[in-house]
């Protein structure tokens, strides 16, 4: 089967190097970097043969995961192993990035020892691996997660731009309700429900704090009484 696995960053630097057989040396990592990663022309084939050594690689963002074999091996099986290995890393520490690989290099070596034995695939089931390797992966916050945390701390609102100004501060608030009723020909109520929504249109400058309250009491002030022209209040 395979003789080793290398993981590179976009610069061609080796992040992870694991040799399973002695028929391949660590110099093979340099050959792949020169002929594939730093090649003048883009290498489209996922299989490359260099000096009687076969390189099988998959790329995730800026990370290259490469398997090395000296023998004539089943290419489909090798790629299935590489994709399964990438999937296991995602289950442990999220996205496969350079920072996550550097922060979890000890965990990755432990996973390789459990997944591959002397170049042969053994176990790629994440559920079983987590019973053997209980170490939790270290996740590096992505740019979107960092922005979200910053917004929560600073109170920054992404859906409202800065510098909004109006000549007159106004706010229109409408409460819309609808009653839905379904009755049988005999007059029996089959279903009934009330649906409502609050619609707001704002012409407020900046980011003011607004407090709204609802009251079920209706006040009618200045309404004339029943007896004549005299003024009175009814509630």
Automatic annotation (TrEMBL):
<dbReference type="InterPro" id="IPR036168">
    <property type="entry name" value="AP2_Mu_C_sf"/>
</dbReference>
<dbReference type="GO" id="GO:0016192">
    <property type="term" value="P:vesicle-mediated transport"/>
</dbReference>
<dbReference type="InterPro" id="IPR022775">
    <property type="entry name" value="AP_mu_sigma_su"/>
</dbReference>
<dbReference type="GO" id="GO:0030131">
    <property type="term" value="C:clathrin adaptor complex"/>
</dbReference>
<dbReference type="Pfam" id="PF00928">
    <property type="entry name" value="Adap_comp_sub"/>
</dbReference>
<dbReference type="InterPro" id="IPR001392">
    <property type="entry name" value="Clathrin_mu"/>
</dbReference>
<dbReference type="GO" id="GO:0006886">
    <property type="term" value="P:intracellular protein transport"/>
</dbReference>
<dbReference type="InterPro" id="IPR043532">
    <property type="entry name" value="AP2_Mu_N"/>
</dbReference>
<keyword id="KW-0472">Membrane</keyword>
<dbReference type="Pfam" id="PF01217">
    <property type="entry name" value="Clat_adaptor_s"/>
</dbReference>
<feature type="domain" description="MHD">
    <location>
        <begin position="168"/>
        <end position="235"/>
    </location>
</feature>
<dbReference type="GO" id="GO:0005905">
    <property type="term" value="C:clathrin-coated pit"/>
</dbReference>
<keyword id="KW-0813">Transport</keyword>
<keyword id="KW-0168">Coated pit</keyword>
<dbReference type="InterPro" id="IPR011012">
    <property type="entry name" value="Longin-like_dom_sf"/>
</dbReference>
<dbReference type="InterPro" id="IPR028565">
    <property type="entry name" value="MHD"/>
</dbReference>
<dbReference type="InterPro" id="IPR050431">
    <property type="entry name" value="Adaptor_comp_med_subunit"/>
</dbReference>
<keyword id="KW-0653">Protein transport</keyword>
<protein>
    <recommendedName>
        <fullName>MHD domain-containing protein</fullName>
    </recommendedName>
</protein>
<dbReference type="InterPro" id="IPR018240">
    <property type="entry name" value="Clathrin_mu_CS"/>
</dbReference>
């Amino acid at each position: 089967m395979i003789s080793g696995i290398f993981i590179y960053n976009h610069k061609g630097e080796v992040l992870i190097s694991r040799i399973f057989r002695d028929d391949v040396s660590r110099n093979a990592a340099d050959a792949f970097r020169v002929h594939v990663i730093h090649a003048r022309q883009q290498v489209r084939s996922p299989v490359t043969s260099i000096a009687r050594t076969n390189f099988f690689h998959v790329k995730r963002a800026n990370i290259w995961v490469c398997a090395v074999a000296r023998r004539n091996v089943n290419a489909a099986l090798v790629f299935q192993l590489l994709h399964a290995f990438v999937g296991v890393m995602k289950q442990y520490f999220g996205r496969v990035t350079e920072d996550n690989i550097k922060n979890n290099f000890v965990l990755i070596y432990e996973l390789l020892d459990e997944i591959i034995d002397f170049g042969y695939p053994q176990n790629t089931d994440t559920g079983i691996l987590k019973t053997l390797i209980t170490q939790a992966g270290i996740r590096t916050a992505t740019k979107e997660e960092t922005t979200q945390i910053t917004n929560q701390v600073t109170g920054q609102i992404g859906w409202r731009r800065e510098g909004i100004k109006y000549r007159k501060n106004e706010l229109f608030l409408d409460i819309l309700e609808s009653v839905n009723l379904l009755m049988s020909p005999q007059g029996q109520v089959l279903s009934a429900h009330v649906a409502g929504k609050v619609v707001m249109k704002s012409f407020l400058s900046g980011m003011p704090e607004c407090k709204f309250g609802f009251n079920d009491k209706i006040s009618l002030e200045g309404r004339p009484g029943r007896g004549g022209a005299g003024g009175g209040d009814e509630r």
